[in-house]
Amino acid sequence: MEIQDTKSTLQVTPRNEDKIKKIWKTALILLAITVSEFIMAFTMDRGILLYTLFILLTIWKAKYIMMEFMHLGDEAKPLFYSIIVPLIFLIWLVIALVKEGSDIFLMRW
Amino acid sequence: MVVFVFISAFKSLKINLVHYSPMSAHSTVIEASTKRGVWGGGNEPLKASYGKLMMWFFLLSDIFTFAAFLISYLAIRVSYPAYAGAAETFTGSNEYWPVPELVFEALPFLHGVHAPLIFVGIMTFILIASSVTMVLAVEAGHRNDRNDVVKWMLWTLLGGITFLSCQAWEWSHFIHGTDGGSMLTYVNGLGQNVSETVFGANLMVNEYGPASFAQLFFFITGFHGFHVTIGVFLLFLCFYQAAVGIYDKRGHYEMVEKIGLYWHFVDLVWVFVFTLFYLI
Are A34 and A65 in the same domain? Predict the structure, then answer.
């Protein structure tokens, strides 16, 4: 019964159409990148060039999701850097493990 | 530690659940944070609330967990030769890594139709769409617009449930395998060397590629699916609390924002899983 007693006391602000438009625009960009990845998967030859393009497009999409959807860009600068800077370690992890994997490949075959 | 940080993100949620128990329903709700002094936790470092900060640091730790999984995938992937023959004559073997578009090519209700990557494309589209409706819910939360929050939360919830259902089908198809299977020579659980036709996949052997192909598939998409499942529970909670007016009484819709962060993260991880598993 306490649930029924929930008349809103907050002031509702009207929609900001520009903001909503921007959200849909970001969504369209994400969709367009995904579709182009699809097309590339079927039209281009498999190889290091295609894989590099895939990874770059993925990071580009990740940037849009983190900046536009998660609003990381609008946070205070120290918070922004405390999330972004630790990711530098991952670059080394990629280099180290891919090198390791290709060495295993050479040993095995 | 990670679990603690994750739970900390929902601190205000716990307080309000206590307030809305029948016993204290008619007692005054005390706004704890505004009455606190600077040294009592009243200030907000980094201009973000405690819960939001904890959510960000939880997500950072989760990024590392998923990155460890995905980079391990990459390492094991390059340690095997890739399938280099024609697409028409592809058969699975544990000697080389399979081509994803030749493994993930089935559609529900359309048995035998060759539709490479179509189903996983639909799944990706559903998850991105649910991320968009989530960001619209967060935007409505900033405006204290309960009707819009409830509407967009419901769409997001539907998207999450649809994605999980799709993944259940994808797993089921992956486990049961194709009609023909693949002829493989492998070491079985008893340590014997066997040659037989293998159908589907388990953690020991699979018809698509080396054992680690299915192992990584199960672990990475499974761990992601586990995150989506938790996300769906949180979305439902948020949808319910918004609908009954709990956030109106609390005075802000920050919970929508925090759960939104988590949901976008799930989408973010899927973007990487999609590239590494289904494209490369």
Answer: yes
pLDDT greater than 90 at residue B216: yes
ipTM here: 0.87
pLDDT at position A8 is 58
Q: Does B241 reach chain A within 8 Å, measured CB to CB?
A: no
Q: Could you report the per-residue pLDDT of A71-109, keeping only the tens digit for each?
A: 998 888 999 999 999 999 999 999 999 999 999 999 987
Containing structural domain, residue A86: 76-109
CA distance B209 to B97: 6
A67 shares a domain with A93: no
Residues 24-63 of A with CB under 8 A from B: 24, 26-27, 30-31, 34, 37-38, 41-42, 46, 51, 54-55, 57-58, 61-62
Asked if the structure places residue A82 within a domain, the reply is: yes
Given CB atoms, is A70 within the 8 Å cutoff of chain B? yes
CA-nearest of B233, B265, B247 to B160 is: B233
Q: Dump pLDDT digits (tens) for B244-257.
A: 989 988 888 999 99
Distance from CA of A91 to the nearest CA of B (A): 10
Q: How many CB pairs (< 8 A) connect A and B?
A: 152
A98 touches chain B (CB under 8 A): yes
Considering only the beta carbons, identify the residue of A8, A94, A104 that sits closest to B71. Answer: A94
Query: Residue B103's domain is classified under what CATH number?
Result: 1.20.120.80
Residues A64 and A105 in one domain: no
